[in-house]
Amino acid sequence: MNTSDKKRQIPMAPMPAAGVPGNLLSSVAPPTELPNFITASSVAAVTPVDVKTNVAITVSQPVPPTVLNSHAATDLLPEKQETFSPAIPPNKGEPMLPIRSPEDSQATQSPESLPESTPDLDKIGDIMPGSGLITWMKGAVSTGGILQRVAEKAKNSVDSMITTLDPQMKEYLRSGGDLYVVVASDKEMKVSPIREAFQTVFGKATVVGHPAQSDVTAEQPVGYAAAYAAAKQRIAHIRSTYAEVTNNVPVVAAESFLQETVSDRWYEVCLVVVSQPSLGIELHVQSQGTAVPAAAVAALSAATAPDYPHRQTGYALTVGSVMAASLQVSHTQWQEASTGVSRREILSLAARSLAGSYKNLLAVSAAET
């Protein structure tokens, strides 16, 4: 052995004899190793030396773990439990994938399969017959269902608001349609209630008035026959004067007359006649009567000259002129001043009854043809 080898040799401390107390750490047993399911390589033994006691201490240092046994880890890991996470998933808001197969999607999205233009709403029923909301709405409106009633109610509400703000708009809103009616008078007191009556019954109607005079009866007709003769002459005058008023155009005439129901019980009644020769229609309606005092009739008789040409059919003055002078009102307002019901209201109710009967006759005539 060389001298240099002797210098590098580390002297070993002598082991203590049995029963001789040594270092405290030398008498404590190493801890029991915990079970480890990781397959590790061999542990390298290191023998450090205690400086004080020169006792060698064996310490086991594990090598970093290697590959985990897949079967043992799978069996021993706890089952995964579903937990609630308030976080928004990353795919939130992204479009979902189509249910169709890729081939169908490509065929659907091909430019050749796409329509050239978007179809109109009226043609949707042809593309999808018998289905969809459009078909149901068309059926509900055409059959007079709830949609038609709602639409009519809304339209009537709007029209009512407009006519309340401007009463003259009523004639404009309801004018038109297929019905054209001519009134044998140019006085607004007669034309206006007749127009309102026909527009109420038919919805839309064009009603115009033309002047027409009667010279076959007295100024104030007495009796139904005289009033009918005056109305017929007014209608004939309209048809002979205005070329556009053909036999297919209905003409309405209103004539007031005095009627003695019983002795000295006089009433003013309005006769309303509508005539349409092309359909053979001629309807008569009488309005409600307005009581006239016997003294007023006596005044009319006294004011009519014995040689009056039409004394056989009535009087030379109208009952309105006598009653207006007595009541100190206009000759068109004496009915309202006497009974509380205006002449316009009386004529409007009679004309509405006439328009309703005329509409029923048109329906019967259309059914027969």
Q: How would you explain this protein's 3D organization?
A:
With 369 residues, the chain is of the alpha+beta class. Mean pLDDT is 75; it is low at 41-45, 65-70 and 124-131. 40% of the residues lie in helices and 14% in strands. The protein has 14 helices and ten strands. It has three domains: 1-27 and 45-60, no CATH class; 140-174; 179-368, Alpha-Beta Complex (Maf protein). Strand 6 and strand 7 (265-276) form a beta hairpin. Helix 6 crosses helix 7 (146-165) and helix 9 (188-202) crosses helix 14. The strands form three sheets. Strands 3, 4, 6, 7, 8 and 9 form a six-stranded mixed sheet that branches. The chain has helices spanning 3-8, 24-27, 70-76, 102-108, 124-127, 133-142, 146-165, 169-174, 188-202, 224-241, 294-303, 319-327, 334-339, 343-368, and strands spanning 44-46, 59-61, 180-183, 206-209, 220-221, 251-262, 265-276, 281-286, 290-292, 314-315. The N and C termini lie far apart (147 Å).
